Amino acid sequence: MLQARMTDRQLAESCGVDTKTIGRWITETGRVPRARHRWAVCQALGEDEAVLWPAAAKKAIKVGPDREVVSVYPYRSGCPASLWRSLVTKAERELTFAGYTNYFLWLEQSRFGTVLRRKAARGCRVRFLLGDPDSDLTRSREQDEDVALTLSTRIRVTLAELGKIRSQPGIDARYSGGHAYLSVFRFDDDMIVTPLLTHSVGHDAPTLHLRRHQDDGMFDPFASHVEELWNRGTPVWEGEGHG
Length: 243
Fold this sequence. Notes:
Layout: H1 8-15, H2 19-27, H3 35-45, H4 49-52, H5 54-59, E1 69-73, H6 81-90, E2 94-98, H7 103-108, H8 112-121, E3 125-130, H9 136-145, H10 151-163, E4 171-175, E5 182-187, E6 190-195, E7 207-211, H11 219-232, E8 234-235
Helix pairs in contact: 1-2
């Protein structure tokens, strides 16, 4: 609650309970709220149920490959902005944003450029994989989307924002066309994956929140996919080679 800057009263209003109930959840360690209330708290705080109520999560723990699936959302727009912020905040080693435009991040995350600069200054590798705004693939996708704010415009907004922080060591960007229909966002061992469906835009696409627990699970193939695209990608800024 402190990290989310949320008071007892604010959390109570978000979950549809009274403030005294919030107090009991905090002070009575063995008390486990109903499932719908646990989910409401997790969404409000941008935290996982396994962290807040490990006993409840343990009862439903998965043991197969799907144990790496933390959450699913029918639309990316349904994935809470607080979750994105929490994942960015917690990452210490790697932040990789492999969305074709990555435009929405600058809209939904306050002072996003400043956060990225600080992360890189502390040793976190920050990478952006973007579509080329002038490519035939981008023009083809623009015709498919047929929206007023075109892909190329959204990419150029991201490029302009990245240009403001590119002087910070540890921040890099490359062009690639290999992720035109699959966006992958990595935060250390957490990942958000969005497969783009035909005639849809990113915020309408189904979304998975993954967390790495094992070798060759759900997480690793997407991570390898992004690494391959990065190695084959073209540097956004001239004079900067692969690294």
